[in-house]
Amino acid sequence: MKRFAGILVALCLLAGAACADTISTSGTVTAGTVVAIQAPIGGTVEIVAAEKGMDVQAGDTLVTLKTTKIYAPADGTVTGIFVAPGDDAESVANTFGADMYLEGSMKYTVSASTGKAYSSIETTFVHVGETVYLQCRSNNARTGVGLITAVEGNSYTIQVTEGDFILGDSVYVFRDSGYVTTGKIGQGSVSRVNPQGITASGAVVSVAVKNGDQVKKGDLLMETLDGTWEGYVAGSREIQANTDGVIAEVSATVGSALSQGATVVTLYPRTGMRVETVVEADDLSEVKVGDTVRLELSADESKVYTGTVERISALAEESTDSESAVSYRVYITFTPDEAVAFGMEMDVIFGGETEAAEPQEEPEAPAAEETEEPQEAAEAQE
Question: What is the pTM assigned to this prediction?
Answer without folding.
Answer: 0.64
